[in-house]
Amino acid sequence: MTDTAHAGHLETATGLDNRKLAIWTFIGSECLFFASLISNYLVHKETWLTGPGPFPHEAWTSPAGKVFEPIIEIPLVTLGTALLLFSSLFVVLALANAQRGNRKGLLLWLGLTLLCGVFFVGMQVYEFTHFVHKGLTLKTNLFGGSFFVLTGFHGTHVTIGVIWLFTLWIEAFRGKIPPAKSLNLEIAALYWHFVDVVWVVIFPVVYLIK
Amino acid sequence: MDAHATSAEPERSHPSVGVYVRIGLVLFVLTALEVGLYEFTYGGHAGPAGAAIQPFFVPLLLLLSAGKFALVAMFYMHLKQDHRLFTGVFVFPLIIATVLILGLVVLEAYHFAFARAG
Question: What pTM did the predictor assign?
Fold first, then answer.
């Protein structure tokens, strides 16, 4: 590594930080990944193997007489959505504090971001468990398959984001994120915001549009 | 690691804390509007007005969703201030993704409306 590189100014062809360009490229590829899952859900959501809708939004009785109760819980998911949006606010406040060198502020806002993320993952685990108990599994019908795959992959992304931000919280706690290294947090924050904007699309498409 | 510690791009100012908080409040209000729209159209508070809203329900919901998406991308992800290359790297696949979703939905709608009817 050259002296210039050690001075902290790595020259790049674009003049931009390679890691930031890499995360944006990754986010771009993730757009296509989630687009395929969302379109898969939209195409299959009304394609039932065990009968027509409007289950799970409304009750439905199968020809065999089995009653399927409505299982979508809008209030709970709305709370999760609001907390995920607030977590986006909290992580930019954490970043602003990191850039100013305010370690206490960084730890506080990053901690709140983590709490929101953990709540969201917990909400999804509860929801999945509840759905399985009510009869909607990955195998029930094409809605079940496409729903669990779409929301499950999003939940996996949130979980990875929580782990990533937790490692940064530990780093910040040890005082290893000075203003000069705030880009480390900015890159993780970009991933976190992307996870948030994907949910901004999934929430109305899956839970509000029948 | 240290070599990457500082961004090589020119410093561009990010929004202030006040702007972040105001955007957060707008996002919260837009989410409340989405849920309110659902409640008054199909939910527990649906009335005669709900039936009138139904044809506009999906477009309104998608509009609110797009507004939230744009606010987060522009202000929280700093696309409004950062280098335009980042915007290009994000928006180009986003356009392909949107076309993919719309194309498949239209194809499916055509299949249900015409193809199955023979």
Answer: 0.88
